[in-house]
């Protein structure tokens, strides 16, 4: 009996070990093994029969049992990786069910990994199948194609899946074999990349093929073969000729006869095919590139709008195959369409924007919000510079929204793969270059250069090309080392004195000298608000700009963003004397402020009902979150939850306890830390030495507070208040714990998002531990560094805690009661994401400029994941699509009404027309208020003489004829 139990324990232990997630190093080593193995991740060849039996390779499944298929089986290591890390290497389609491969519950991860794997194989000599690709019989192409056909016919029968994931499905059709097809465009780029890696002199042609592909590139490659004949190997010559063959296939003219045949194969011949049939009746030899692009754009959109009217998966697959074929023609002809006038350029942007909808890069509702702008512009003969800048801003948005949709679909999986296979990062760039976003971006860039010239908004950024894509977000100036981060930013340890260029800024960004981002996140995230508040220069740029600037990585530079949004980035050697003088110690000390503590009340050592406080208690009894929410509870009683406050006095009472192993109180330890730092400074210690000492001491304090013993009287008081205020005992109602310090919402410093908020905590012990975690968060490195940048007395920071019951909102976000970067004082800037905690942490949120009479979409949401708040506590993750907006018309009206009431009811000590930063959400269309704070901007940056001097003087009312050449 004991032996059986022991065996059972061993079995369970082994199973548990097998399921343990494998480390990055283990996966890297596994990939190396597969690359050098003649069978790659495969074990052996088998027959897989219809009756679920398996047979040896020379023993086929008999017809009497339904026959079967032959393919490789997987090594145990590959199978274990699937279980432990949800990683699928060397996928064999014929061996997997449609449902498992689609992997909908994991946001289609397995399907996306298949696409990434094909990309890696194309650029890295088979990748994990470097030798295994020659393992005969491992994969049967005819079985893969047959599987692909039935897979798509199955998937495309699902109306909701097609509506919500149109882009992903079209991309999958390019990659998954189903009709003797292949992704020729990707193959062309992969072949040119491999050749450039092997032949350095081929790099210029490779850049041309990737960045500006044209039919004439074939001649470039052929001439290269002739000119380099004596310098290249026979293998290189063979590979170059294969590239030429691929390019000739890619640039082959549109085959009207083939398309007519494809249409005849579609069973449901409804009216939506009429446009295609009319197009095919034209003389294909006399169609100009502009006509061809316009027609194909319209047809692509027509197919998307009407595809659900075709009822069978077979017909839908044929239409999408046709859609992909037409897209290839559009990509070629859009490069051949040359524009000369302003009207032609705007028209081309309009047409290509239409094509982004047809190819899935924009959602239909997103396109409908901007189409009117292009239609109205193209109907006129002239335009003001102000309106032309508005058109340019919209056009730039189309490029950004398109690229961001690609990232939203694949970024999570790419980030995962990059940890063990760095070249995976090129996958998204490859998708962008194989889309209409490439040609659209080039056309918008050309328009941007023209508009910059006539508006005098000229960037001066290290002499790189296509600078019109760069635009300022926050004014300010900085000097320091340039760091270009072309990858996941979360692994980067930032430095206060450096200037960073990110693909996307990390949500917990520590203070930096300056930032530029490809994905700006949203205008009202905590990072953006802190940057705005501190006068940190912040600008948006294109992915191409980032790559161009990567060669300056590590150089000392001067960086400035003007109040009008033009950007300067120059080398240290090019700085003027005026620019050097900006960084004197006297200039940089002007912004330092002091936390007021003269009225702070530390005598209140009982839990406080939020109803009993108002704005006058901010910075005295508690922080502004709790004080202002108490004020809001009085003004908006039905839209604000009940709340409890752990005041400053309770924190101070616990800080007066003796700190273990120090022979002094926690509070004395804290003050001694800052006192010693001043002594070090007076003795000539460097900033780095002083900061290193402070951070080390505060880390010790942080850990000690996490283990501090809470008073029994306080815990009993908390239990009692839970029952009386929330109507239930502690441990039975999930709550938020929000840090709320006296250093937040000062007149010159916002402090937004620096300290900890704990979501949806249920159990009593977790609430108790959470209180200590929130207190301790005031002494983390990130919080300290942001404070240190601005505060003269950071040792006098007191945290209170606001406790409010959770509201499981459908979507949530932030409103600034003024226009930011666009609009005026009476407008509203709103950013919303699905689920709880929306927009504040830098999600790619739905951002709108709401005026009294209009509602302008500044950016759609591109955040694929979100969280909800179950009654059991904690958070639950979900994924979403983007085919519908987050905010509806009723929400917009409620937001306007809320802003109007806030402006009327809330009096501010700051100014009569004070703008506010409001956090709120909607549940079943009911608005819930969670926080309000003054919106603080950096007035010094706004009024800087230097920034004013580099801001262009623009006559916005000047008119330009649309017939003018550009």
UniProtKB/TrEMBL annotation:
Residues 256-283 form a coiled coil. Pathway: Carbohydrate biosynthesis; gluconeogenesis. It catalyses: pyruvate + ATP + H2O = phosphoenolpyruvate + AMP + phosphate + 2 H(+). InterPro entries: ATP_grasp_subdomain_1 (IPR013815), PEP_synth (IPR006319), PPDK_AMP/ATP-bd (IPR002192). Its cofactor is Mg(2+). Residues 1-19 form the signal peptide. Gene3D superfamilies: ATP-grasp fold, A domain, ATP-grasp fold, B domain. One of its GO terms (molecular function) is ATP binding. Keywords: ATP-binding, Coiled coil, Kinase, Magnesium, Metal-binding, Nucleotide-binding, Pyruvate, Signal, Transferase. It holds the Pfam family PPDK_N. Transmembrane segments: none annotated. It comes from the Bacteria. Residues 621-944 form the Pyruvate phosphate dikinase AMP/ATP-binding domain. Its EC number is 2.7.9.2. Catalyzes the phosphorylation of pyruvate to phosphoenolpyruvate. Belongs to the PEP-utilizing enzyme family. This is Phosphoenolpyruvate synthase. It comes from Tenacibaculum adriaticum.
């Amino acid at each position: 009996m004991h032996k059986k139990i022991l065996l059972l324990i061993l079995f369970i232990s082994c199973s548990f070990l097998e399921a343990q997630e494998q480390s990055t190093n283990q996966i890297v080593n596994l990939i190396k093994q597969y690359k050098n193995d003649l069978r790659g991740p495969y074990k052996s060849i088998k027959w897989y029969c219809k009756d679920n039996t398996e047979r040896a390779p020379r023993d086929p499944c008999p017809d009497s049992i339904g026959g079967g298929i032959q393919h490789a089986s997987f090594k145990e290591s590959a199978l274990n990786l699937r279980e432990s890390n949800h990683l699928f290497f060397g996928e064999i389609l014929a061996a997997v069910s449609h449902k498992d491969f689609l992997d909908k519950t994991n946001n289609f991860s397995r399907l996306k990994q298949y696409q990434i794997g094909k990309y890696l194989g194309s650029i890295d000599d088979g990748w994990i199948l470097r030798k295994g690709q020659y393992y005969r019989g491992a994969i049967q192409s005819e079985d893969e194609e047959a599987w692909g056909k039935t897979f798509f016919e199955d998937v495309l029968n699902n109306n909701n899946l097609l509506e919500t994931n149109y882009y992903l499905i079209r991309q999958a059709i390019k990659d998954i074999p189903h009709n003797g097809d292949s992704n020729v465009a990707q193959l062309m780029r992969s072949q040119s990349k491999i050749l450039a890696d092997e032949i350095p002199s081929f790099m210029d042609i490779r850049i041309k093929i990737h960045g500006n592909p044209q039919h004439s590139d074939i001649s470039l490659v052929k001439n290269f073969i002739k000119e380099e004949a004596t310098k290249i190997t026979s293998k290189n010559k063979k590979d170059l000729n294969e590239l030429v063959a691929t390019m000739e296939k890619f640039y082959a003219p549109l085959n009207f006869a083939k398309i007519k045949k494809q249409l005849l194969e579609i069973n449901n011949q409804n009216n939506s095919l009429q446009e295609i049939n009319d197009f095919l009746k034209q003389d294909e030899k006399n169609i100009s590139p502009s006509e061809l692009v316009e027609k194909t754009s319209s047809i692509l959109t027509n197919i998307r709008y009407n595809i659900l009217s075709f009822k069978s998966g077979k017909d839908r697959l044929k239409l999408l195959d046709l859609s992909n074929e037409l897209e290839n023609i559009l990509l070629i002809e859009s490069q051949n369409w040359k524009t000369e006038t302003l009207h032609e350029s705007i028209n081309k942007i309009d047409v290509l924007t239409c094509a982004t909808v047809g190819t899935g890069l924009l959602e239909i509702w997103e396109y409908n919000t901007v189409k009117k702008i292009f239609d109205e512009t193209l109907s006129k003969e002239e335009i003001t510079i102000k309106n032309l800048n508005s058109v340019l801003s919209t056009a730039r948005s189309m490029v950004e929204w398109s690229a961001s949709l690609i990232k939203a679909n694949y970024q999570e999986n790419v980030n995962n793969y990059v940890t063990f296979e760095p070249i995976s990062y090129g996958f998204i760039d490859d998708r962008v270059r194989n889309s209409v976003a490439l040609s659209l971006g080039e056309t918008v860039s050309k328009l941007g250069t023209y508009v910059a010239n006539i508006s005098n908004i000229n960037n001066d950024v290290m002499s790189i090309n296509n600078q019109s894509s760069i635009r300022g977000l926050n004014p300010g100036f900085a000097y320091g080392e340039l760091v270009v981060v072309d990858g996941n930013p979360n692994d980067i340890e930032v430095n206060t004195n450096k200037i960073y260029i990110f693909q996307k800024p990390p949500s917990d960004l520590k203070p930096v000298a300056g930032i530029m981002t490809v994905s700006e996140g949203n205008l009202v995230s905590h990072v953006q608000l802190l940057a705005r508040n501190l006068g940190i220069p912040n600008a948006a740029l294109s992915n191409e700009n980032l790559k161009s600037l990567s060669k300056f990585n590590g150089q000392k530079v001067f960086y400035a963003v003007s109040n009008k949004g033009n950007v300067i980035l120059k080398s240290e050697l090019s700085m003027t004397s005026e620019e050097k003088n900006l960084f004197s110690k006297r200039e940089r000390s002007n912004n330092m402020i002091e936390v007021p503590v003269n009225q702070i009340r530390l005598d209140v050592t009982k839990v406080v009902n939020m109803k009993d406080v108002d704005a006058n208690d901010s910075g005295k009894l508690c922080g502004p979150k709790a004080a202002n929410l108490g004020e809001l509870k009085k003004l908006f009683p039905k839209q604000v939850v009940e709340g409890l406050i752990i005041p400053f006095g309770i924190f101070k009472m616990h800080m007066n306890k003796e700190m273990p192993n120090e022979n002094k109180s926690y509070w004395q330890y804290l003050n001694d830390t800052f006192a010693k730092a001043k002594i070090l400074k007076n003795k000539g210690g460097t900033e780095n030495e002083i900061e290193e000492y402070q951070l080390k001491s505060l880390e010790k304090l942080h850990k000690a507070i996490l283990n501090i013993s809470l008073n029994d009287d306080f815990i009993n008081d908390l239990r009692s208040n839970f029952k009386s205020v929330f109507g239930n005992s502690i441990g039975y109602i999930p709550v938020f714990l929000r840090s709320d310090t006296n250093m937040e919402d000062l007149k010159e410093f916002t402090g937004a998002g620096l300290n900890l908020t704990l979501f949806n905590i249920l159990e009593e012990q977790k609430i108790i531990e959470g209180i200590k975690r929130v207190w301790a968060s005031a002494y983390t490195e990130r919080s300290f560094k942001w404070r240190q940048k601005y505060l003269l007395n950071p040792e006098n920071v007191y945290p209170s805690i606001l406790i409010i019951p959770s509201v499981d909102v459908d979507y949530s976000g932030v409103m600034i009661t003024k226009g930011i970067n666009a609009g005026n004082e009476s407008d509203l800037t709103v950013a919303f994401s699905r689920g709880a905690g929306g927009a504040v942490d830098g999600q790619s949120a739905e951002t709108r400029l709401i005026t009294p009479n209009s509602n302008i979409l500044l950016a759609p949401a591109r955040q694929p994941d979100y969280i909800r708040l179950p009654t059991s506590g904690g958070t639950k993750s979900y994924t979403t699509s983007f085919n519908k907006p987050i905010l509806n018309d009723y929400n917009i009206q409620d937001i306007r009404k809320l802003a109007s009431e806030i402006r009327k009811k809330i009096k501010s000590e700051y100014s009569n027309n004070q703008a506010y930063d409001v956090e709120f959400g909607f549940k079943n269309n009911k608005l819930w208020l969670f926080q309000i704070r003054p919106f603080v901007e950096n007035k010094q940056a706004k009024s800087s003489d230097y920034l004013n001097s580099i801001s262009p003087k623009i006559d916005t009312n000047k008119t330009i004829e649309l017939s003018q050449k550009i």
